[in-house]
Amino acid sequence: MKYFFLLSYCLILTLQISAQGYMDIDSARKLTWSGKTSEERFSGMRSLDRFYYTTGKFDSSALLQKEMFAIAKESKRDSMMALVYRAIGNRYVTKTDYNFSIVNYARGLDYTTRDKQRRAGLYLNIAYVYIVTGNIQVALDYIQKGKAIGQTGQNLYFENLLYGLIYNDLEKPDSALFYFRQAENLPTKITDPLLISVGLLQMGRAYELQGDADLAETYYKKTMAYCKEKYLPLSIIRTGNVYCNFLMKNGKYDEAKQIALQDLDVAKKAGINEGIANVAEVLRKIYTHTAWKDSIIYYAQLQIDYKDSVSNQKKQSEFQNLTFSQQLHEIDEQTKAKEAAEEQRQNIQFALMALGIISFIIIFLLLSRSFITNTKMIEFLGVIALLIVFEFLNLLLHPFLERVTHHSPLLMLLALVCIAALLVPLHHKAEKWATAKLVEKNKQIRLAAAKKTIQQLDTKPDNKSD
Asked: Which backbone phi and psi does 182 adopt, to 5 degrees?
């Protein structure tokens, strides 16, 4: 029971994003497919993805998360990357794949160096997972890390809920209620349906532990009605199981049976095998107190069958999780390859521009009939041109050389040396030709200047004979 009550929080305490960041499903779908910018599409996907993983549509969620990951990578925005990894972690928590959730929350932390509140929120995500797995002290350490940053808004609300959850788990309802009420009294207004449902459930749990059966039942009924109104299948099942156990403790077996049968129908329609197994266990316990003993065997067998199915799903899920991680890695590599290709294309353009400018200057100096140019300048510009040509060929041939040499540094070095060996003699010949041309041009300019000076002297009156 201890872990069962903790699981009732798993759909919400992992959602550390402002409620205003989500939108209704129809708007999310429209924005996902027809958003004008990548930011708009990403925003729509966030809301749609959240709907998918909170209602058990994990395959659809995984597909959207891969799209979100690709957008975040192309946009090069740390905030988007942190949101994607948090969403992935949330999905794994919902599936009770806690190891994978921790890994992805930790990856999200790598993108929060400049966003302290999002970092604090991820610390709370990680703390929740440790609470669920029974590591209370580790969970408290992560809560303290968040507190050290300084919680505000949603994070402060969730911090109080986490403390309430811990005290419920420790069966200290007075302390739990203190933190739940403190969360309610914060100025931040929570509109998230799943969060509201879980808060109601945990309040009921605290009152049950306190021995106030009337208030506990009031909150359980309120939670069930709210979950059905908002159609939160996972919350309906988990809340229903908690409520049924409460009713059985109070001898209300017929009422518990009615609720459990309704929950079983919800679990079957939603295809939640773990939910079916849990509800079947509740029904088995209920029928031990009724006259229909055959039903005990039926639900016991149903529980066994679906537990086996859940076990098989877990094994398959682990393989799918590894596959998903590899797919994200491939998206990352493809994005890096595209960025490298774009960068190379730009570098080639810059090299061509620089080469064109240097070539233009050299040609201008060689062909100009009015400038006397120092040969040292031509030699300097020639060296610069040689370096630019070498770098241009390096950029142009680098991908080809990598494929041919299979990324061998030694072979690539030899190839570049060969290219340089061809360029240097050509450069030497071009430099000699340019220098010769320059010397000849300078002689012609000086000769022309001398002739002009003589002519000017000859035409002066003082130089004419009487």
From this structure: -65, -40
